[in-house]
Design brief:
Chain lengths: ~120, ~110
């Protein structure tokens, strides 16, 4: 059974940094692209960033480009999202999700429960 | 970015009746070399993460009841629930994965 467990969320001041982690189990981690999706309180879904199975292909939403960095550690079956220069509008639940394939351009078939990031002074 | 627009924003349907949600993309998301539409549908219930229902516009995810179906091609897509059940109350999202900047529709709230 696929299991994705996010951690690292919390309260941070504007301009601060956080590093989110997503521990994956139940599947061959290196064979699948992974992604981060966020949801502001009471709002819809927003794709944030994705990374291919090999880590060789990475993409970001324009809203986070230059501030967020996605990475993965295949040896630890863990996905990361380094978030710098945080702003109030980054406040959201952050979900990690597994794509159906290795190279991206696929739907997300498994999701974690999410971790809440609150950016406020 | 490709803009995904869903209609309606909210929908009330009686138990056992058909529910139809539409999704329109701002550009074609059909890739002719593999004959696939890069479109997925998700269901999100309160306090839960989204769940994949349909991918490639019409392929039902394993375990999803067959009352859920997806159709459409190019820029216009539809999610149909053939006979609404109480547990189908949720927000439904379409998503394109054609471009390397994935985008979701704004969501459609489905109520009884």
């Amino acid at each position: 059974e696929v299991n994705l467990l996010e951690s690292g969320g919390g309260l941070v001041q504007p301009g601060g940094s956080l590093r989110l982690s997503c521990a994956a189990s139940g599947f061959s981690f290196r064979k699948y692209a992974m992604t981060w999706v966020r949801q502001a309180p009471g709002k819809g879904l927003e794709w944030v960033s994705g990374i291919s199975g090999s880590g060789g292909s990475i993409n970001y939403a324009d809203s986070v480009k230059g501030r967020f960095t996605i990475s993965r550690d295949i040896s630890k079956n863990t996905l990361f999202l380094q978030m710098d220069s945080l702003r109030a509008d980054d406040t959201a639940v952050y979900y990690c999700a597994k794509e159906l394939g290795r190279d991206g351009y696929e739907a997300f078939d498994s999701w974690g429960q999410g971790t809440l990031v609150t950016v406020s002074s | 970015d490709i803009v995904m627009t869903q209609s309606p924003d909210s929908l009330a349907v009686s138990l056992g009746e058909r529910a139809t949600i539409n999704c329109k993309s701002s550009q074609n998301i059909f890739y002719s070399p593999n004959n696939k539409n890069y479109l997925a549908w998700y269901q999100q219930k309160p306090g839960q993460p989204p769940m994949l229902l349909i991918y490639w516009a019409s392929t039902r995810e394993s375990g999803v009841p067959d009352r859920f179906s997806g159709s459409g091609s190019g820029t216009d897509f539809t999610l149909t629930i053939s006979s609404l059940q109480a547990e189908d109350v949720a927000v439904y999202y379409c998503q394109q994965y054609y471009s390397n900047s994935y985008t979701f529709g704004q969501g459609t709230r489905l109520e009884i």
